Amino acid sequence: MSHVKAGGSSKNNHNNAGHRLGVKRFGGQKVSAGEVIVRQVGASKIAGPGTYTSRNFTIHAAKDGVVKMATRKVRTFTGKTVPRVQVSVE
Question: What are 33-72's pLDDT values in tens digits?
Fold first, then answer.
């Protein structure tokens, strides 16, 4: 038989800061090489010419230029085709 009463659980102990995700430079804006264009979780937007993706799916500018956003159809792992925004620097 237990000699300690049930401890229960706390419900309101989540105090994490936001990740500050989203588009940092929009279409038509000037960027310099290495600058962050999009911070995201997963590849909801894909990197096009003049950009590259880092380990956490952040899209950076590979060269100086102007940001351009365009819609492309991308095939997923299951073979389904879905629209994705392609970010490029021209």
Answer: 999 999 999 999 999 999 999 999 999 999 999 999 999 9
The amino acid occupying position 6 is A
Q: Provide the CA 63 distance to its chain's centre, in angstroms.
A: 19
Which residue reads 């021209």 in tokens? 90
10 alpha-carbon distance from chain centroid: 32
87 DSSP β-pair partners? 47, 69
State how far Cα 33 lies from the chain centre: 18
- pTM to 2 decimal places: 0.81
Q: Which domains does the chain have, with CATH numbers?
A: 22-89 (2.40.50.100)
